[in-house]
From TrEMBL:
Assigned protein family: Belongs to the ComF/GntX family.
Lineage of the organism: Bacteria, Bacillati, Bacillota, Bacilli, Lactobacillales
Protein name (record): ComF family protein
Domain Phosphoribosyltransferase, chain residue ranges per copy: 123-199
Gene3D superfamilies according to UniProt: 3.40.50.2020
Alphabetical list of Pfam families matching this protein: Pribosyltran (PF00156)
Recorded superkingdom: Bacteria
Length: 201
């Protein structure tokens, strides 16, 4: 008696490219064998990347985020809710921690695109981090992203996080700098195991 609602027609769905097999073993970057250049650099700096993404950031995905994030069509956050739910449910025992927006950016956009996707997926999450007001990542080149200075703080500095295993969730993974800065803050509070996930890579 229950009919499953489809929010994405087949002709649109096939234009989104799912992450395949030939990807970086650490971050799902397309067209890689073994570890990509970015992950190799992170590893040399003592940082272990363990990231999973569902789709490549192709032209269709770029257009999706343009409408979802920058034109404010919040309901588009529902399109991939089922897939996000199924993927994140695999991380049993992990606390989901979304990458936050700065207050300025949230007020301008009207919503946080990451928590909106999690809400549509009906997944509980812990908001442990807050972001300082900085230049948007979309306005930075690759070099500037990799040189990103710390832009996160803990919401509650007194919180003991040493018993937690965390899966950080973002919308798009580009160089990994945002995730690594968030991990630095959480590692500083005793978190030993942190993985990450994004809709697009």
């Amino acid at each position: 008696m229950k009919r499953e609602e489809e929010w994405l027609c087949e002709s649109c769905r096939i234009r989104f490219e799912k992450v395949g097999n030939e990807v970086c073993s650490s971050c799902c970057k397309k067209g890689q064998k073994g570890m990509c250049e970015d992950c190799t650099t992170w590893k040399k700096n003592g940082k272990e990347v363990c990231h999973r993404a569902l789709y490549y950031y192709n032209e269709e995905m770029k257009d999706y985020f343009r409408r979802y994030k920058f034109q404010g069509d919040q309901l588009l956050g529902y399109l991939f809710a089922k897939e996000i739910y199924l993927e994140l449910k695999k991380y049993k025992g992990y606390s989901i921690v979304p990458i936050p927006l700065s207050q300025e950016r949230k007020e301008k956009r009207g919503f946080n695109q990451v928590t909106a996707m999690l809400d549509f997926a009906n997944l509980p999450y812990c908001q442990l981090l807050k972001k300082r007001d900085t230049q948007a990542q979309s306005q930075k080149n690759r070099k500037e992203r990799l040189e990103l200075k710390q832009s996160f703080d803990l919401i509650n500095h007194q919180t003991d996080l040493s018993d937690l295993k965390i899966i950080l969730v973002d919308d798009i993974y580009t160089t990994g700098a945002t995730i690594e800065r968030a991990k630095e803050i959480l590692n500083g509070k005793g978190v030993k195991e942190i993985k990450s996930f994004s809709l697009a890579r």
